[in-house]
Design brief:
- Among the domains are: 70 residues, 434 Repressor (Amino-terminal Domain); 50 residues, no CATH class.
- The protein has 18 helices and seven strands.
- Helix 7 runs parallel beside helix 8.
- The radius of gyration is 24 Å and the shape is globular.
- It starts with 5 loop residues before the first strand and ends with a helix.
Length: 381
């Protein structure tokens, strides 16, 4: 029987598998019967291979969410570093990321690798995002430069569209400029709003799928700033003293609500002496720029039209009222597939299939669906 076989495993592979799911030795010990923290520490010492019963490897495979074959590697695979954690907490002590959040990052990385693979299969040129900056650059200037690169002008844009339609427009603009955008469910670390995975070939922005469209729009450009800075990051978008997060928040606001356009907006122009702005005013301006009231108020603060104290008091008020949108009804597998992979990725998958670079089994695998859903996804595109 398989359970009687033993297999030798490299200690470094064991350590990599555990750390790649964000589990401590104590947490693993609680999940494996008859195993202590000390024994796990002993397994991971680099003093020779460790023998395991097949059943024990199976248990670790389940816990670490890695295939059995991964434990037979002679060394840990070369992987991109885990994105930097930019979350902030009032206590100053960060909560650990949940293992399911590690799985979300791994899922996004697979999309990124698949995109690079498809680009290579189709012989398409790599569209590298040309703008690169560091924290010494003025976010206002960088936002203007980026709008020019993306061919965006005449703000406010999309006034007559819904925020969901506007989000889709922005995603299409970024994807046409080489940025892959994925919307994935992040359920266990609810404070996370998005993250970025930098790659010269396939930079990727991940949005929290359950957020409201207006929140996703801001996250999209916050994460674009991380791409421009050429840094991976996991973000909660809170008011933060972390220099990188302040910069990215500033950039996102400046991109979506340009300085001159806001200052010349009739309601703002008529009330430049005002320091406290009624919610009804903020809501009207926010509606036209397709951002939140908080984004507008923050821009007014940055531009000297309100005080820091007033902005922070309103931020606190809105924060206590914030709730994730309530999701009802059946899970829409087709919509989720398109949101997670993005239209550019899916178009490339179908192109590869039509060019006979991949077969139907690979097509379904790239899309992450059963073969009966393939035609429905194509129709929904």
């Amino acid at each position: 029987m398989l359970s009687k076989f033993s297999v030798s495993i490299e200690p470094t592979v064991l350590k990599w598998a555990r750390e790649s799911i964000g589990l401590s030795r104590d947490e693993v010990a609680k999940r494996v019967k008859g195993v202590t923290t000390a024994s796990i520490e002993e397994w991971e010492k680099e003093n020779g291979k460790v023998n395991f019963a097949f059943a024990q490897i199976g248990k670790l495979s389940t816990i670490y969410k890695r295939p059995l074959s991964a434990f037979l590697l002679s060394a840990p695979p070369k992987e991109a570093p885990f994105p930097k954690d930019f979350r902030t907490f009032p206590s100053g002590e960060k909560k650990p990321l949940h293992p399911k959040t590690y799985l979300v990052v791994r899922k996004a990385r697979r999309f990124q690798y698949s995109m690079a693979e498809l680009t290579n299969e189709l012989g398409e040129p790599t569209e590298k995002f040309p703008i690169k900056a560091n924290l010494t650059v003025d976010p206002e200037v960088l936002a203007e430069r980026t709008r020019g690169q993306l061919g965006v002008k005449n703000f406010p844009l999309f006034v007559s569209l819904t925020t969901e339609a506007v989000l889709n427009e922005w995603i299409e603009i970024l994807e046409n400029n080489g940025i892959v955008v994925s919307q994935i469910s992040i359920t266990k670390n609810k404070e996370i709003r998005g993250f970025s995975l930098v790659s010269e070939d396939v930079p990727l922005v991940v949005l929290k799928r359950t957020d409201a469209p207006v929140a996703k729009i801001f996250t999209l450009f916050h994460e674009l700033a991380h791409i421009i800075l050429r840094e991976d990051g996991i973000c909660d978008l809170e008011e933060s003293n972390i220099l990188h997060e302040k910069f990215c928040n500033h950039f996102a606001g400046a991109f979506l609500v340009p300085k001159n356009e806001l200052l010349n907006y009739p309601m703002v122009k008529a009330n430049k002496q005002r320091r406290e702005w009624p919610d009804s005013f903020l809501a009207q301006i926010a509606h036209d720029f397709k951002v939140s009231k908080e984004v507008i108020l923050r821009r007014l603060w940055i531009l000297g039209l309100t005080t820091r104290e007033y902005y922070l008091s309103k931020h606190k008020e809105w924060e206590t009222k914030y709730k994730e949108p309530l999701r009802k009804g059946k899970r829409n597998e087709i919509k989720i597939c398109i949101q997670e992979r993005g239209k550019r990725y899916i178009s490339m998958v179908f192109d590869a299939y039509e060019c006979r670079k991949i077969d139907r089994i690979a097509l379904a695998d790239y899309l992450g669906v059963t073969s009966d859903k393939i035609s429905k996804i194509k129709d929904a595109m």
